[in-house]
Structure formats: C-alpha cells, structure tokens
Design goal:
Shape: globular
Distance between the termini: 25 Å
Number of strands: 5
Number of helices: 6
Radius of gyration: 14 Å
CATH architecture: 3-Layer(aba) Sandwich
Strand content: 15-25%
CATH topology: Rossmann fold
Number of domains: 1
CATH class: Alpha Beta
Largest sheet: 5 strands, parallel
Length: 147
C-alpha cells in the first residue's frame, strides 16, 4: 500500500514567510500540495468549505502561525478543537513566538509540534524534512469520523 501525499495547509499572514516555506519544500524536492490561507478565518473557510472556498483534500497537516490578523493562531486552535468535524486535525505551530505562555497554550490544544521560526535558522530545512517524514509514517484518521 502506498502512502497518500500529504497536503499542507499553511496558515500564515506574512507573504515572505509563506514563500520561505514554499521554497523550502521545493528545495527539498517535496511535491506536497500547499494551500495558503492568510489568517485563521480563511483557513476555517477552507476546512469547512464555506464562503466559496474549495475544500482541502486529505490527508493534510496544518502549519499554523500564531500572530495573525482577524483570527489568530490560538483562536483558530480553539475553533477547530471545539468543532467535532475538525478536532482531529494535525497541527504544527510555525511562529516567531518563543514565549513559554504561547507554547503552553498551543500544546494544551493538542498540537503535534511547535517550531520557532528564528530558532529554526539553518535547521528550518530539517523541520520541513521532519514534516515530510511525519506524513510518510503516520496514519491519518478519515475526515469527520465520530469516535
């Protein structure tokens, strides 16, 4: 059985940071599809296929910035964890915040990992490789399956 290619939903308001993530995937020759949402509201529209957004195809992971306009990362996590159709989504935080409070709040919402952008530096490519390997070895739940 072959593994499905994992789509990445990149939730990032900074176009330069978003382009850095996309270029990192390309430089590693990873052909994961990447959908870009500029804030949590746009990401929710994609996840819920609302307001004309094309639904995302699974399996997928979310790369989430915390500091965004309209609906920031922490509020986005609250929304998806309180929504039975979205609460099983795998989320990695990719942010500039190294604050203990932000890490604590994010992990309380069952994120899969917390990556600080400026700490990643040369290790950023390794972080992208980790995400790629994660998608290759982890079995994802079917969407919207109640337990």
């Amino acid at each position: 059985m072959t593994k499905d290619i994992v789509t990445v939903l990149l939730v990032e308001d900074d176009d330069i940071d978003a382009e850095t993530v996309i270029r990192s995937f390309k430089s590693l020759k990873l052909d994961n599809p990447i959908r870009h949402a500029r804030d949590g509201e746009e990401a929710l529209d994609i996840l819920r296929a609302e307001n004309g957004a094309e639904p995302i195809k699974g399996p997928f992971v979310v790369l989430l910035d915390l500091n965004m306009p309209r609906l920031g990362g922490h509020d986005f996590l609250v929304e998806i964890r309180n929504d039975p159709s979205l609460d099983q989504i795998v989320v990695f935080v990719l942010t500039t915040s190294s604050a203990d409070e932000d890490r604590y709040k994010a992990y309380k919402k069952n994120i899969a990992g917390y990556i600080v952008k400026h700490d990643a530096g040369n290790g950023f490519v390794e972080a992208i490789r980790l995400l790629e390997q994660f998608g290759q070895v982890v079995t994802f739940p079917e969407p919207k399956v109640a337990i």
